[in-house]
Design brief:
It comes from Paenalkalicoccus suaedae. This protein is mostly helical. Helix content is about 80%, strand content about 0%.
């Protein structure tokens, strides 16, 4: 799927960034927000962690790149 090793690195950095955003958003939401806004932000956080997990699975199982 991904041929260029540098592209795989940047895609994995995006996945790590999404994980960080998810954690920061969850901590902020649990401490500061209430009601509908809280659940909407937690849903966004959940979507970020799911997307980052899928990206990690794709990058990991795409195998080693040819040299």
């Amino acid at each position: 799927m991904f041929v260029d090793p540098l592209m795989k690195m940047w895609i994995s950095f995006i996945a790590m960034g999404l994980m960080f955003v998810s954690v920061a958003l969850t901590i902020f939401t649990k401490e500061k927000l209430r009601g509908f806004l809280r659940y909407s932000f937690l849903t966004i956080s959940f979507i970020c962690i799911i997307v980052s997990g899928l990206i990690v699975i794709l990058v990991t199982f795409s195998g080693p790149v040819p040299e």
